[in-house]
């Protein structure tokens, strides 16, 4: 059996030499399989961002070896015939593919829509519910599953053509901004100017294809401090809207641990939770998708008074937090991801217990805990709450911290469920 990456590469090569003059550079938009009657809509969306630093200009009909890695990486998210597609996407999950311009000018969308496929469980249900007709459809290659596969083949051809246009219209090498610091880079400037996803389409998961080790911060024996990362990121104006973030394509470095700490702090400040850093050609080990998402709003009591608080509570099928966030508005709104496990006694009453990290994500995760006034929740590690119907009550605390001016040595909060919200 031929390697699927070879088949994908062949498809890209066959299309790139046959582009018609004036072929549209508009994104490939395909929503046909996003909303199917009788099938659940996923709660997550995935955004693939390709740093144009990785895209080298091509003439029509020419293929540059330097473009192979990013093409192969992106294409595997649209290969519905690959049996492992469910490890990357859910059926009917919105996928958006964008390029972040290397001149700092913004982002260009290559694809937006849903890859046509059914999950293994759904395929089995379709066959069993169809009876003898399902067996006939499978034999003759017809029916809903075969239709989806045929649609996916056409979609891959359209997307291959769009990738070819992206290389032929890529920013000329002499017009690209030079690599300096991450905060001042064309990549961050372009992402700050781009509007490449909408929270109504689901809880965001971003996969960034970029070699971030090229920036000045990582050229020395040690990366700058986490507080420096937070300060620099705060000047960029970038807001990734509380996304789960994976980076692919970053080369290893002698100071890899320091680089990871710096990037965690940098992206945390712009509202993204960095979950993994992966070399080129390697897929992240993705976590389970959210099975339930709820939104809550209310207030939290600090020693200085009460402040507005918002929460996105997303849990997977096992009750484990999956890209959950909480934000508090004091002098400015700061968002913090949280992890832990929720257990429910029934469909109204649930308890959540955090992982004893919570606001320490703002500190040095690998050393002793630090508690500073600038940190959200002052760096407190304990985070727990109870849900009774539409009311959520909880507290943040820490056995190492004596909180003055509040009862029970804790920051207590009460929130109410917000129906139809997005956060």
Q: Would you mind describing this structure in some detail?
A:
It is a single chain. The model is unreliable at 1-23 (pLDDT under 50). The two termini are 45 Å apart. The protein has 8 helices and 16 strands. It is globular. With 423 residues, the protein is an alpha/beta fold. It has 2 domains: 4-278, no CATH class; 292-417, Beta Barrel (Lipocalin). A hairpin with a 4-residue loop joins strand 12 and strand 13.
Features:
single chain; alpha/beta; Lipocalin; 2 domains; nine-stranded antiparallel sheet; 8 helices; globular
CA radius of gyration is 23 Å
Distance between the ends: 45 Å
Q: Give the ordered list of helices and strands.
A: HEEHEEHHHHEHEHEEEEEEEEEE
| Fraction in helix | 10-25%
How many structural domains in the coordinates? 2
Strand order of the largest sheet: 11-10-9-8-16-15-14-13-12
